[in-house]
Give the backbone structure.
Amino acid sequence: MTQKSNPLSSIKVNGPIPAHLARSVIEETLRTAILTGRIPCGTALRQQDLADLFGVSRMPVREALRQLEAQSLLNVIAHKGAVVAPLVQGDAAETYELRILLESEALRCSIPLLDNEDFELAACCIDELESVDDYAEISRLNRLFHMTLYNKAPNRRLLRLVDAGLHEEERFLRFNLETMGLGKLSQDDHRALLQAVESRDVERSVTLLQQHLNRGVDAITRYLASPASGT
C-alpha cells in the first residue's frame, strides 16, 4: 500500500524561530505554500502538527491560521479544523465584479492626490514583475502595484475592502498566469494604466482598470465552465 504524502513535508524550517516573529513567520510560510500550490486545496492544517513542525507552541499557530482565514485562504470546518480553501469559492464572478466597482472608486478618488513617489513605486513594481517567476512574489508585487495607485483614496474602509479583495485574488492569479498566459498581457495593462494615471486622466484610467480586471472575470468564467474545476 502506497503511503499518502504529507503536504507539510515540502515546508523547510531553518532553525529555531524567535518567539516575537513566530506568528508572522508561520503565516507567511503557509501563505506562500498555499499560493504556490504546495499545500493543495482541501488539506487539513492541524495546529499540533504545525506547532511541532515550526517548534513553537500552538498559540502563534492559532493566530497565523486566523490571519490566513481572514485572507480567504483557509476555511474552518466543524470537526476538521482549518482546511485550505477551494481555488474558487462561492459566486466568484460576482465577487470579481464587486472588486471592479470598489477598485474603480478607489482609483478615481486616489488619482488627484498621487505624487511622483507613488508613480515611481508603481513603475518599479512593473519592472520587477517582468523579471520574477516566483508566484508568491508575483502576487505581492501585483497587490503592491494596485494598492500604490489606490492608496491616496481618503476612504480607509474602502481601501481595506480593496486590499482584502486583492488578497483573495492571489491564488487565482497563479492559475491565470499558468493556464491563460497572462503574464506579459498583465504588464502591458499595468503600463498603460500607469501612463493614464500619471496623465491624471481619471476616466481613461478607470476604463483601463476595468478592462484589466474583466480579464479576470473571463478567466474565472472559463475555469468554472471547464471539467478541471470540478463544479
Remarks:
- The mean pLDDT is 85.
- The CA atoms of residues 160 and 166 lie 10 Å apart.
- The longest strand covers residues 74-77.
- Residues 92-229 form a domain with the Four Helix Bundle (Hemerythrin (Met), subunit A) fold (CATH 1.20.120.530).
